[in-house]
Write a structure and sequence with these properties.
Helix content: under 10%
Strand content: 35-45%
CATH class: Alpha Beta
Shape: globular
CATH architecture: Alpha-Beta Complex
CATH superfamily: Medium-chain alcohol dehydrogenases, catalytic domain
Strand order of the largest sheet: 8-3-5-6-9
Protein name: Alcohol dehydrogenase catalytic domain-containing protein
Structural class: mainly beta
Order of helices and strands: EEEHEEEEEE
């Protein structure tokens, strides 16, 4: 899959091919439709978080994401393939961020659009 990666920090992000992750027990695999760039990501790329958090390379930055569930791991309840979800990456290390086509997540929320209401309703 395609992902934004860093080979080192500080570094220059590049679009590369990485292995598609598989959901572990208690996780869902999300096909990422949108991710953001925030101050945390900029600090990661600039190397400001070295010594504060473990870095696993190639490092995929990104914290926030939205997308759809592609697969569910063992023991997952309340999520099904095709569910629209959003969330934040909460790993204790840097490297498995949201700037990729798919991401494993243990915590995300289902998006339920509001009921449509027409003018005559």
């Amino acid at each position: 899959m395609r992902a934004v990666t860093l080979a080192q920090v500080p570094g220059s992000p590049e679009a590369t091919e990485v292995e598609v992750p598989r959901p572990e027990a208690g996780e869902v695999l999300v096909k990422v439709a949108a991710s953001s760039v925030n101050g945390f990501d900029l600090g990661t790329v600039a190397g400001y978080l070295q010594g504060m958090m473990e870095h696993r390379f190639p490092l995929i930055p990104g914290k926030d994401f939205a997308g759809t569930v592609e697969a569910v791991g063992e023991g997952v309840e309340g999520f099904a393939v095709g569910d629209a979800v959003f969330g934040v990456v909460t790993k204790a290390h840097l490297g498995a961020g949201s700037m990729a086509q798919s991401r494993r997540r243990s915590r995300c929320h289902r998006h339920r659009p509001p009921a449509r209401r027409g003018l005559g309703a």
